[in-house]
Design brief:
Layout: E1 2-7, E2 10-15, H1 22-51, H2 58-83, H3 89-109, H4 118-140, H5 145-167
Antiparallel strand pairs: 1-2
Helix pairs in contact: 2-3, 2-4, 2-5, 3-4, 4-5
Length: 168
């Protein structure tokens, strides 16, 4: 049963029985299938673009390596200053946290394939992971000369890797 309601002299039709219109359900099903197909296409596109994302260049690897070397040397120096009593606990902890975050940033920068430089990228990533781990340990554990030496050795390893990259 239908009735007409006039709003500002324009007729509007309202369905007053409680039955559900089959066309509405059919249209909703079609809309759902279209949305699923669209989301699938978007998902595949995102996946393919992520897989074929830009590769790191030699300069990208070299920059990340320079960062890791610098952060390692700074961490070693910071630990030495702490052990010699030249910095406060608050200063040490805040600087160690910042260096750890910088190492983590370098790890993110290296989070892409590097083509023919893949081996070098993985070596730099390994150094960044080790540096972040060393700083995390001194922030939440004991500050030792051993950790100071570990970070200094990490800096030297980064320097050697930089020399190898120059030769490539």
């Amino acid at each position: 049963m239908q009735r007409f309601v006039t709003v500002e002299d324009h007729p509007v039709t309202h369905n007053t029985d409680d039955s559900c219109d089959g066309n509405i359900l059919e249209k909703a099903g079609v809309l759902t299938r279209v949305m699923r197909a669209l989301l699938s296409i978007i998902g595949v596109t995102v996946f393919l673009s992520a897989c074929s994302g830009s590769k790191l260049t030699k300069d990208d690897v070299r920059l990340a390596l320079g960062d890791v070397r610098s952060f390692s040397a700074s961490g070693s120096f910071l630990i030495g200053q702490k052990l010699d009593g030249k910095v406060t606990d608050t200063f040490f902890l805040s600087q160690a946290q910042q260096l750890e975050e910088k190492f983590n940033g370098a790890k993110k920068d290296l989070d892409a394939p590097a083509g023919p430089l893949e081996y070098r990228r993985l070596k730099v990533l390994e150094l960044a992971i080790q540096g972040a781990d060393d700083l995390h340990q001194v922030r939440y554990g004991e500050v030792t000369r051993e950790k100071e030496a570990d970070l200094l050795a990490l800096s030297a390893a980064a320097k050697n890797l930089e020399e190898q990259l120059k030769d490539d």
